[in-house]
């Protein structure tokens, strides 16, 4: 397809596509003449991934470039390729808890213990480590130790969610073909961002139902 059709299929304006081409985010099309290039399904998939990162993940273009370079790498394992996209959209939240507070050190130790006991394989620079530590410290400082005491129950629940999600994004496509790194990365980005909203919504509905049944 020509660039105009690529724009219609993906909903990305032609000037934006040309910008992505100049920045190296999108691989060049196959030249059919000195001034004409042809694009195909991998270009459609790459554009969808870029838009998911930029629009849903609010990921800066420079970081998007780092992610797609990883996806195009012939040496990085798929786990690390996808990890770049995952880390880019799971930036630590800025909570009020300072790492200098005593509660932070206690929370950090609790997180380390949790990961060790559950046998999870987590990179030391995983953004979610900081978020979890700060959240536990904030809960303790607000007197919500009862919630922190149920950390393993939370971990059991989210581990089940994670298994379902990983299975969904790595399973073969409906036609039986293996999913490309771009397709897996797009699913990870969309699933992580919208999956959080999905889980949070269901949790609120479940809380409302349990409250109605038990607090009448």
From TrEMBL:
Transmembrane segments: none annotated. It comes from the Bacteria. Keywords: DNA-binding. SMART domains: HTH_MERR. The keyword DNA-binding applies. The keyword DNA-binding applies. It holds the Pfam family MerR_1. One of its GO terms (molecular function) is DNA binding. InterPro entries: DNA-bd_dom_put_sf (IPR009061), MerR-type_HTH_dom (IPR000551), MerR_fam (IPR047057). Residues 1-70 form the HTH merR-type domain. This is MerR-like DNA binding protein. It comes from Kribbella antiqua. The lineage of its organism: Bacteria, Bacillati, Actinomycetota, Actinomycetes, Propionibacteriales.
């Amino acid at each position: 397809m020509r660039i105009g059709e690529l724009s219609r299929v993906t909903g990305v304006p032609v000037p934006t596509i040309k910008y992505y081409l100049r920045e190296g985010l999108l691989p060049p099309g196959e030249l059919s003449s000195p001034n004409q290039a042809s694009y195909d399904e991998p270009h459609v998939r790459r554009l969808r991934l870029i838009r998911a990162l930029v629009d849903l993940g609010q990921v800066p273009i420079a970081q998007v470039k780092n992610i797609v370079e990883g996806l195009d790498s012939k040496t990085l394992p798929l786990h690390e390729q996808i990890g770049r996209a995952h880390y880019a959209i799971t930036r630590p939240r800025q909570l009020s808890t300072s790492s200098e507070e005593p509660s932070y050190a206690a929370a950090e130790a609790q997180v380390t213990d949790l990961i060790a006991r559950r046998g999870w394989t987590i990179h030391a620079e995983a953004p979610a480590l900081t978020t979890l530590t700060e959240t536990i410290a904030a809960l303790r400082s607000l007197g919500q130790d009862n919630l922190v005491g149920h950390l393993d129950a939370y971990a059991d629940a989210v581990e089940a969610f994670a298994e379902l999600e990983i299975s969904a994004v790595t399973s073969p496509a409906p036609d039986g073909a293996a999913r490309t790194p771009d397709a897996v990365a797009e699913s990870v980005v969309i699933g992580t961002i919208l999956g959080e909203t999905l889980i949070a919504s269901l949790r609120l509905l479940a809380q409302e139902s349990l409250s109605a049944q038990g607090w009448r």
